Automatic annotation (TrEMBL):
Residues 1-118, 125-265, 272-289 form the Jacalin-type lectin domain. The keyword Endoplasmic reticulum does not apply. PROSITE patterns: JACALIN_LECTIN (PS51752). Belongs to the jacalin lectin family. This is Jacalin-related lectin 3-like. InterPro entries: Jacalin-like_lectin_dom, Jacalin-like_lectin_dom_plant, Jacalin-like_lectin_dom_sf. The lineage of its organism: Eukaryota, Viridiplantae, Streptophyta, Embryophyta, Tracheophyta. Gene3D superfamilies: Jacalin-like lectin domain (2.100.10.30). GO terms for molecular function: carbohydrate binding. The gene is LOC116211611. Pfam families: Jacalin (PF01419).
Amino acid sequence: MEIVVFGPVVGSIHIDYDHNGSLVRSCRHGESHEGQTSTVTLDYPDEYLTSISGCTNTDISIIQSLSIHSNRRKYGPIGDENGNPFSFRDKQIKDGKILGFFRKCSSYVNSIGAYIGPISHPHPFKTIGPFGNRDRNSWDDGKHPDIRQIDVVFDTEVESISIIYDNHGHHTIPFAHGEKGGGKFYSVRLVYPYEYLRLISGYLREHLGRHILQSISFSSNTRKYGPFGREVGIPFSGPSTGGKIVGFYGSCNGHLDSIGAYLEPVSHKHPMRTVGPFRGNGGSPWDDG
């Protein structure tokens, strides 16, 4: 990223992006000025942008200074800090990183905003579990792009589970396991495609040499669902790998006897959010995507 400061304002900015391992350079936003040039070079691929902050001049609708924040350090301030401060640090980004910039420019940079996407963490596990009793009555849903909905029937133990997966923008038929008795019913409906499952946990009860799934909880990237069942017995929890759950497998014999999950990295196909733009209304729109 190259930022040119001309006098008390940010005159121009252009950014080098990664596209599947190749360098893609944006056009220059703002005009080329004979000012002070500052270059922010990230230690790709281990370093990434997490936030921007700075100051604006609201009288003439321009950016006066910028600071660039990565997961390792702060770059800047670049420009004149005597203005109205702006920042979305720690407030609008959580477990995300900046993937692109947009907003308006004229002879100078009038405003700036950013696209935010999830961080795809490397994870050492492809499966977790199964938790519970393993027997011949096994089931395996395989892997799917995402999970849409989970219906759980439970009482003193988990009786059945039914999962609806995503099929490239459409939902699948329910994958049902166990027998639906007269227990309590709860439907976990994820806010697709923004919300995804990260973890399963629960309790097992030993009975006649067998482990029975006593309770289960599901944790997404936004909240925890459950517990469904009684939280007594032997606790279990899959490791938090930074990935997402894309399928389940296990066994059942009347009740749900065991459950495990398939994991994949969190990809950027989950829609990006935006933060900003920060100040002003002048200039022509630009958008790096």
